[in-house]
Write a structure and sequence with these properties.
Structural class: mainly alpha
Number of strands: 4
Order of helices and strands: HEEHHHEEHHHHHHHHHHHH
Low-confidence stretches: none
Strand order of the largest sheet: 1-2
Strand content: under 5%
Radius of gyration: 21 Å
Mean pLDDT: 86
Oligomer: single chain
Largest sheet: 2 strands, antiparallel
Shape: globular
């Protein structure tokens, strides 16, 4: 995961730079950008088919991958772990299965909140989330650090476990997941999931930044990867290894919830509540953000047909409602497949335009040295 983030910072730098360099301004004065624009503008109109492929898979990732299923499934799992961990209160849904009432209620409430923002135009919910999320991030980091400090004597053994698991997985897993390839695949997949480096989603947002310096935006973009994965995800991973919850047969959010319960000097309910609140806000804002990404992809794909975009929003809300009722393994498999399909055309473009990235960076750095550009 850390190795993926290390190289991901370079990819994210390139994506942010290209997003600003090749962005366009629409008739309403909005800045639009992303892989479809730097493919078409940078590589030439003959590569427009590659931009269309990227846009298509971008819609799929929003609808079936990072945007909906995995986020909602995580929220529902965290809420169930707090309110009904033993599945005492359940209901049977014909043809689907038996689920805790907390999962059903969470699905309905979340779908309504997303609908109020996307269809109803009630931006207050989104604005509140944007204000709360930075505080949630700080709280999460503080809690994770507290867990690590409380178990500081276990850190050397945890690092040994991580290194063994990376280079000789069977020595740690007992042969259950005993190949280096699977360890690498899982680490890279989770790293990309957390920071989106190479996917092409981040440059869609970066294109709207109020800067005229492509390199400056590239530097800002790559900082996000460092914070997301090398700091926050490493803290989470260390917490999981320190407490041994990775080897308890748990899945998804339950792994981290159990780690917090075992590693923190708080009652189990308090640890579960903190994680649940943090996850709800993180995931909810991610759901809204990915609707923005996938709508921009759909607009490019359909020639900015508003009716298609409006219909897509209803499909998006339906996907949010369905997410909690899917298995964790199915959710992650679908997300990883579409992530890979979306990343492929974007990485082709980033590689093809690497000369532009190098040239722009050289000009910027030379300007800094000669005091022609303010840092």
């Amino acid at each position: 995961m850390i190795v993926a983030a290390f190289f991901g910072m370079a990819t994210k730098f390139s994506e942010g730079l290209l997003a600003i360099k090749y962005r366009v301004v629409d008739k309403d004065g909005h800045s639009l950008g992303g892989p479809f624009y730097y493919i078409e503008q940078g590589m030439g109109s003959k590569w427009k088919w590659l931009a269309k492929i990227f846009a298509f898979f971008g819609v799929c990732v929003g609808l079936f991958g990072i945007g909906t299923f995995s986020q909602v499934n995580g929220i529902a799992s965290a809420i169930q772990n707090f309110f009904d961990p033993n599945k005492v209160h359940t209901m049977a849904i014909p043809g689907i299965g038996t689920y805790s009432w907390t999962v059903v209620i969470a699905s309905l409430v979340l779908s309504i909140c997303v609908a109020l923002v996307l269809i109803g135009g009630i931006k207050r919910i989104a604005n509140v989330s944007q204000i709360v999320v930075p505080f949630m991030a700080i709280i999460y980091v503080v809690i994770s650090l507290t867990l690590i400090i409380c178990n500081i004597t276990e850190i050397p053994a945890a690092i040994v476990t991580v290194v063994k698991g990376a280079f000789n997985p069977s020595a740690v897993t007992g042969g259950a997941v005993g190949t280096l390839f699977i360890a690498m695949q899982s680490g890279v997949a989770r790293g990309i999931f957390s920071n989106e480096s190479g996917l092409g989603s981040a440059p869609i947002a970066a294109a709207a930044a109020k800067t005229k310096e492509p390199v400056r935006q590239g530097l800002v973009s790559m900082t996000g990867t460092f914070i997301d994965t090398i700091i926050i995800c490493t803290m989470t991973g260390l917490a999981i290894v320190l407490t041994g919850t990775w080897d308890m047969g748990l899945e998804g959010v339950a792994v981290t919830t159990k780690a917090f319960q075992l590693g923190l000097p708080f009652p189990n309910q308090v640890a579960s509540f903190i994680l649940m609140v943090c996850l709800v806000f993180f995931a909810f804002t991610t759901i809204l953000g990915w609707d923005y990404y996938s709508e921009r992809c759909l607009e490019y794909l359909t020639g900015h047909k508003k009716a298609v975009v409006k219909a897509y929003r209803w499909l998006y809300i339906l996907a949010v409602f369905i997410g909690p009722f899917m298995t964790v393994s199915a959710v992650w498999t679908i997300a990883d497949i579409f992530n890979g399909l979306m990343a492929l055309p974007n990485l082709i473009a980033v590689t093809a335009l690497s000369g532009v990235v190098v040239a722009e960076t050289k000009v910027y750095m030379d300007g800094l040295k000669k005091d022609k550009i303010q840092p």
